[in-house]
Amino acid sequence: MDIMTPRRIRMTLKTLRALTIIGLLLLVLFSTFILSVVFYAKSQGPPSLSVPQSTIIYASDGSIIGELHNGQRRYWVGLEDVSEHIVHATVSIEDQSFFQHNGFDYKRIAGAALADLKAMAKVQGASTITQQYARNLFLDHGKTWQRKAKEALYTIRLEQNYSKEQILEGYLNTIYYGHGVYGIEAAANYYFGKNAKQLSLAEAALLVGIPKGPNLYSPFINPEKAKERQALILRTMREQGYITEAELESALSTKLTYSTKEKQALNGIAPYYQDAMIESVARLLKIDEEAIHTQGLRIYTTLDLEMQRKAEQLVTETIDEESEIQAGFVAIEPATGYVKALIGGRDYEQSPYNRATQAERQPGSTIKPLLYYSAISNGFTPSTVMKSEPTTFTYDNGKASYKPNNYNGYYANDFITLLQAIALSDNIYAVKTHMFLGMEKLVETSEQFGFHTKMKQLPSSALGTSPVKLIDLVNAYGMLGNGGKKIEPTFVTKIEDADGKVIYKSNKEREQLLNKEAAFVTTHMMTGMFDSRLNDYTSVTGQSVASILTRDYAGKSGTTSADSWMVGYTPQLVAGVWTGYDKGKSINLVQERSYAKKLWANFMEQALEGQSVKAFRPPDGVVGVYINPASGKLATKDCPVKRFTYYIAGTEPTEYCKDHKPEQKTSPDKAEKSDDKQDSGFFDKLFKWWD
């Protein structure tokens, strides 16, 4: 047994005394610091509840297209003029101990810190209503220690100089509810056409859920998520004793009726574009939308006002006013990815849902250029022939089958070239190509082109049955048009803070991502949809608008039972149009099926009017020759149809067409070379696969 000596006892006592003294000193210092902060905050007096600075949005020509100023859709009302449901819902979900704490909820802070520590990431917040109010009024939304310290000081000043009721009133009048709406009075008027005092329990719970993520929980953008959050808030209110079980069930089953008269875009200019742009800025700066609206930013966008006006006017003039069909439109500069014009629907006031950036629809045959780019990159040429005839394809080790049809049941019942297949939009050729390459190739290609939706490995994917977003498809065509350089849809060129400091600038350098030779060959083949020389068993798909066009365009159309698409480009501009019904209705009228092509053709002509006619410039590594489109062989003077066509160097045809003059003499050297090419391993494999 260890018996402590007197000396050890004395040493232990000295250590304890020293630790006690140090602890007391630290406690005194900490207490002094806390009291000093509190007295300092008190001495500063009530903080000014000034309105945050405006954020201004500029078009590409420098004109102002939007001003997110602080007085817009913001009405200050006293707490007595706010429904008690709003007060109870807000406290329940945001800060349950609001009326008890002094500005900081230490229990929640400790719990959040523990949760973050366990997850090794920021997974839980602990800001009180007072802290959020301080942040909204005085601070940016960064996450630096300096900002946190300032927030704490402002929080103390608010708590020291204002009552809880005043703080809650201020918070409810400054919080952001999406769509440019600030404050509970403006939100009640915008979403439900009533004032804040009149809000029901169900309406209040839905509104209180929006500020956590206006772009996620707005019922106009994501009604499912909005209802989920409303239900969470109602159940939390039940747990907190603010409502009864009967009130909970009644509110959950209440069908909400939203107002439409106040659904207006900021300043009415390009509202769908502005929504997409603000979402883009939030990602770029890693801040929430509320901060964008209140931090005095200067946002310089890519919007071309003249192009936007032309697009909007054409949508109005082209689509029958009585039709319920919807439209999406995107125009992008291929060299930069700059979004020059965007329309997400026919009427923003009736529906702010953005069909250009949010909707995922089946692209139909507009997916084929990506498939054929992949084919050109893997040994195909514009002269590659396959038979167009009714065909049943088996897959999944023979367990499944797929039988596609050509439009109107037309087939060549003969061999056609790839050049013809893309111009005539032959479905059999497309699926044969898809199956020959391997279904994974198109999936890989779509990812290479930057699609944000996952393509399925199915035979039907060659015909566009895997949904995509219009803006992704237009961007992909832009990459073909710029020679294979990587671009992304870009809405903003520069952002300045309130002091004029540049905090973001777009990068104009573009990485060479695609095979530039294959991209050019694909582009040149895509000009064929407007070329009547490629008519065969059916007409080229762009025949109905070819007479409108005054310059060379590359493009592709596509249709499904519920969707009509047209995407095309020149070196200067790429534009895409989708028309269709939002849910559960097919496009049955011939007139409605023609909208997309007409809109696209007229827009491109008007948008490029007065600009120089630019041709697609062939890069080094491609060769152009005249061919007979039907055979894919070199054209002779006796061929009734000749078309100048590009090939990756070394893959161009060397055999002359003999179909129109049996006695046609060809160079022995060239004929021999042609035979060698036809006997190459790639074509052996292709012919064997057909059999």
TrEMBL record:
Domain Glycosyl transferase family: 62-237
Ribonucleoprotein is among the record's keywords: no
A Pfam family per the record: Transpeptidase
UniProt region (Disordered), positions on chain: 657-679
Family annotation (SUPFAM superfamilies): beta-lactamase/transpeptidase-like, Lysozyme-like
Recorded catalytic activity of this chain's protein: Preferential cleavage: (Ac)2-L-Lys-D-Ala-|-D-Ala. Also transpeptidation of peptidyl-alanyl moieties that are N-acyl substituents of D-alanine; [GlcNAc-(1->4)-Mur2Ac(oyl-L-Ala-gamma-D-Glu-L-Lys-D-Ala-D-Ala)](n)-di-trans,octa-cis-undecaprenyl diphosphate + beta-D-GlcNAc-(1->4)-Mur2Ac(oyl-L-Ala-gamma-D-Glu-L-Lys-D-Ala-D-Ala)-di-trans,octa-cis-undecaprenyl diphosphate = [GlcNAc-(1->4)-Mur2Ac(oyl-L-Ala-gamma-D-Glu-L-Lys-D-Ala-D-Ala)](n+1)-di-trans,octa-cis-undecaprenyl diphosphate + di-trans,octa-cis-undecaprenyl diphosphate + H(+)
Segments passing through the bilayer: 21-41
Protein species of origin: Metabacillus malikii
Name of the protein in question: 1A family penicillin-binding protein
Domain of life: Bacteria
Location in or out of the cell: Cell membrane
